[in-house]
Write a structure and sequence with these properties.
This protein is mainly α. It contains two helices and no strands.
């Protein structure tokens, strides 16, 4: 952990902000991709005979 701290301390504020923004952009991209996949799965891959209320019990 001390290596990480010393590396960060050697960067200027603008470099730290740029790296932080890159990380945030990456996380936002991954999260939005997951949301799209989950939503698409829920909309298009429902088993036959189901409704918006959930699975039908036979």
């Amino acid at each position: 952990m001390s290596e990480v701290i010393s590396t960060v301390e050697q960067l200027s504020d603008s470099e730290v902000n740029a790296k932080f923004n890159d990380i945030v952009d990456h996380i936002e991209g991954v999260v939005s991709e997951e949301i799209i996949l989950i939503t698409t799965s829920e909309v298009f891959n429902k088993p036959a005979g189901t409704s918006d209320q959930g699975y039908r019990e036979d």
